[in-house]
Amino acid sequence: MTEAPDAGVIDVERVVCRLSELERGARGFTLGCGEWPLRMFVVRAGDAVHGYLNRCPHAGHRLDLLPERFLTADGTLILCSSHGALFERTTGYCVAGPCAGRSLTPVALQVRCGLVMLADGVELEALAAAAS
Ligand code: FES
Description:
This protein has 132 residues and is mainly beta. 6% of the residues lie in helices and 33% in strands. Strand 6 and strand 7 form a beta hairpin. The longest helix has 8 residues.
């Protein structure tokens, strides 16, 4: 998702991070609190960002068993550290590994005023419950 033309009012509870915090290409975040916080990660591609639940479709493990390692060494693909599944950065589609042909669960994002936010209409609680 690219920068929204009309920044509008910023709902701080929906802010994931600053776009500038994604210089390394990907980073994990936890949104919300209580029993079902939303564990997700964000991948940057230029000024665009792509969000996914931090849950592998193979065995449900978090992808970054190696802390904050979401990408292959060359940065071209998303890596699940558990069993080596590889996913496209922009679609979350698994191109190799034990869950080939399946996809990460996307989290719709938008960028406003340099802030990466959950897109309008994304229900944080429903996503978190689905991911648990
Ligand atoms: S849990 Fe991700 S490849 Fe097995």
